[in-house]
């Protein structure tokens, strides 16, 4: 009897092992921000993921949708614990930080042998590289523009989008008005992100700084140094202060807004202008007929023209146990036919053979974004999390009138110098 029981147990173990070896399902954890509920491109992406599962029966994809701020923090925390996703969606400015932390996989050899590498511009690959190593594939590449309501412009006699800071301030004053007769503005001329943890806040602040002729940082003799003067930073802080307090052209409750609040204010018609990206096209259905009045224009210039060039990168988690399968999924998802589907609605693809398709070239909403690429600049190649926090904290001290623009500029420069000491070590 004992022998029979032992035989049965051994047989069951062998059977279980056989199922595990020969019928194993590989689960790929995918972390990104693409929510099918809000975005047509995300819905297309979701359908493609299902298609991949159908075509690859041994693969199961667990798709986790996480907003940007939480995605960054979750990647950092899980990576520090030696875990994380198989595939991770990243903002380009995260690459230096994540590579230094050792939480994303170096895919240089894979990229160099990938036949589709040629279809991605050098400007996008440059963002995916850090210290000579590649950490992912560029997926979305889009500059910021000045997004505005043409019908609002028409109603106050503005015929063209502003081209300078002064024109932007003048137009914002004209656009801020009381439409109901209750003595309070219902429409405001401008809005921006200023939350201390706003992902998009630094992406708006830095273009203003670049437009003064400054840089955030410069590298001299392999040493990072601040690339701006106190006067240049003060000029930017003064612009923000004037928009909120001197000219009163921003919603009074907008101090501390993140991108969700800012986007929604534009969608519902509370604001007439903001800096924004091509993803706003996914609000077309929600905004209805009003969408036809949405226009884009190059960022108003100061000393020069500049805008943020956002390149998003899809990478492989350092602690993934399925790196080869993750690479197969990644290259399939970012192949020409698939990319054309999941960037058709509200994103701009990074591939040249996709962006050249008529569906992109003939889209009037996307046209100003394509035209602004020449003015686009990505973030500098160093860890930005701490300095971004510093930037937004100093901006808040100005907006809450705890510091003057000059004091904030002095503290911004000093704070960045201190941060760069550790970066340069």
CATH first level of the largest domain: which class?
Alpha Beta
Structure class: alpha/beta
Q: Distance N terminus to C terminus?
A: 70 Å
Helix percent reads 40-55%
* The named CATH superfamily of the largest domain: Periplasmic binding protein-like II
Based on DSSP secondary structure assignment, what is the total number of beta strands?
13
CATH topology of the largest domain: D-Maltodextrin-Binding Protein, domain 2
Radius of gyration of CA atoms, rounded to a whole number: 24 Å
CATH architecture of the largest domain: 3-Layer(aba) Sandwich
Number of domains: 2
Mean pLDDT: 93
List the helices and strands and how they pair.
Layout (H helix, E strand, L loop, with lengths): L1 H21 L3 E7 L7 H16 L3 E7 L2 H13 L6 E5 L3 H7 L6 H5 L9 H7 E2 L2 E2 L2 E7 L1 E5 H6 L9 H11 L24 H12 L5 E4 L2 E4 L3 H17 L12 H9 L5 E4 L7 H4 L6 E4 L9 E10 L6 H11 L2 H7 L9 H4 L2 H4 L5 H6 L3 E2 L7 H15 L5 H19 L2
Parallel strand pairs: 1-2, 1-3, 12-13
Antiparallel strand pairs: 3-12, 4-5, 6-12, 7-10, 7-11, 8-9
Helix pairs in contact: 10-19, 18-19
């Amino acid at each position: 009897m004992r022998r029979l029981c032992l035989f049965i147990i051994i047989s069951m173990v062998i059977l279980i092992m056989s199922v595990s070896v020969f019928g194993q399902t590989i689960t790929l954890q995918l972390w990104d921000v693409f929510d099918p509920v809000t975005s047509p491109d995300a819905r297309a992406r979701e359908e493609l993921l299902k298609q991949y599962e159908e075509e690859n029966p041994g693969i199961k994809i667990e798709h986790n949708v996480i907003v940007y701020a939480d995605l960054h923090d979750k990647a950092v925390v899980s990576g520090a614990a030696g875990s994380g996703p198989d595939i991770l969606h990243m903002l380009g400015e995260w690459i230096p930080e994540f590579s230094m932390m050792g939480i994303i996989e170096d895919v240089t050899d894979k990229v160099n042998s990938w036949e589709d590498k040629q279809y991605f511009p050098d400007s996008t690959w440059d963002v995916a590289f850090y210290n000579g190593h590649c950490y992912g594939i560029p997926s979305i590449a889009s500059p910021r523009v000045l997004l505005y309501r043409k019908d609002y412009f028409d109603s106050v006699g503005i015929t063209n989008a502003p081209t300078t800071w002064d024109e932007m301030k003048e137009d914002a004053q004209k656009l801020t008005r009381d439409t109901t007769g209750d003595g309070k503005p219902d429409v405001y001329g401008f809005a921006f992100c200023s939350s201390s943890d706003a992902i998009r806040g630094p992406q708006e602040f830095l273009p203003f700084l670049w437009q003064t002729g400054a840089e955030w940082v410069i590298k001299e003799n392999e040493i990072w140094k601040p690339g701006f003067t106190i006067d240049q930073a003060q000029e930017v802080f003064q612009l923000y202060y004037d928009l909120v307090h001197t000219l009163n052209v921003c919603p009074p409750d907008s101090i501390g807004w993140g991108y969700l609040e800012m986007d929604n204010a534009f969608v519902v018609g509370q604001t007439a202008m903001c800096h924004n990206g091509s993803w706003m096209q996914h609000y077309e259905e929600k905004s209805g007929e009003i969408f036809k009045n949405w226009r884009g224009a190059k960022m108003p210039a100061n000393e020069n023209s500049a805008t943020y060039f956002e390149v998003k990168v899809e990478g492989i988690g350092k602690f993934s146990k399925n790196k080869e399968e993750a690479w197969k999924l990644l290259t399939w998802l970012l192949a020409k036919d698939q990319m054309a589907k999941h960037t058709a609605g509200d994103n701009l693809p990074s591939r040249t053979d996709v962006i050249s398709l008529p569906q992109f070239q003939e889209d009037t909403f996307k046209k100003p974004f394509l035209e602004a690429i020449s003015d686009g600049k990505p973030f500098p190649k160093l860890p930005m999390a701490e300095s971004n926090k510093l930037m937004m904290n100093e901006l808040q001290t100005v907006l809450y009138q705890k510091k003057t623009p000059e004091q904030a500029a002095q503290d911004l420069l000093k704070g960045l110098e201190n941060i760069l000491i550790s970066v340069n070590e």
